[in-house]
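Researcher: Sequence recovery benchmark, item below. Answer with residues only.
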């Protein structure tokens, strides 16, 4: 009976951790999108405000496929260890922006910048948590290995807080630097279009087929992309120890 109780408790802890894992992803995406709208508003365009998108209410941002189906399918396919998703893009009218050349780039970069700031803040908070270095490394190494991490952090408020901080750092680093890839529809493409002499017709074509180009690029360059994201993640995680 004692073994059954321990197993049940561990399963419940794993389920709670997965809920926090997905919830942190959801709100990191929402902050990313709202930041686009706030920057557009600051630059003179109130489209996102009038569309009711400058809010933390997740119902205003949910996309049936990217917010619900994609994370659930990835959780199932990876045994609960990884999920990824997105929200409905925040609308804005580039013709309303005060700065026509760099305005779209500033709006685009507001999203990744918000994620970088959040990752940095929570990395510093994690650094301040009083845990032995060995314990922190153990949590970082197993932060989404639910069976192991549920046992590692069980009964320790400091360990639980550190684990949650690592989740926040992880998702916000991934969102920030993945979105900086200069391929439509990702935010990095706006900088590419601003600095290169690309015709508007070419930009329209690239944006129309950007998602297909992005998928092909991810498949062909998954190794370098993974190395880049791991490098960025490692830099932020090193702050936490």
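Model:
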């Amino acid at each position: 009976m004692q073994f059954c109780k321990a197993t049940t408790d561990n399963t419940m802890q794993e389920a709670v951790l997965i809920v926090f894992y997905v919830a942190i992803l959801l709100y990191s995406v929402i902050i990313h999108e709202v930041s686009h709208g706030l920057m557009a508003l600051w630059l003179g365009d109130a489209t996102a405000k009038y569309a009711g998108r400058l809010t933390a209410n997740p119902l205003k941002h949910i996309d049936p496929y990217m917010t619900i189906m994609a994370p659930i399918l990835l959780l199932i396919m990876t045994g609960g260890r990884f999920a990824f998703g997105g929200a409905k893009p925040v609308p804005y009218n580039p013709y309303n922006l005060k700065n026509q050349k760099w305005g779209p780039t500033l709006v685009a970069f507001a999203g990744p910048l918000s994620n970088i700031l959040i990752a940095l803040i929570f990395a510093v908070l994690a650094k301040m948590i009083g845990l032995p270095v060995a314990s922190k490394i153990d949590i970082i190494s197993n932060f989404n290995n639910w069976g192991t991490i549920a046992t590692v952090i069980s009964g320790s408020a400091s360990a639980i807080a550190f684990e949650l901080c690592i989740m926040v750092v992880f998702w916000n680093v991934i969102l920030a630097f993945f979105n900086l890839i200069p391929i439509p529809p990702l935010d990095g493409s706006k900088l590419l279009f601003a600095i290169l002499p690309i015709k508007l017709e070419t930009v329209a074509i690239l944006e129309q087929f950007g998602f297909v180009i992005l998928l092909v690029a991810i498949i062909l360059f998954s190794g370098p992309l993974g190395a880049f994201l791991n490098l960025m993640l490692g830099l932020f995680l090193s702050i936490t120890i």
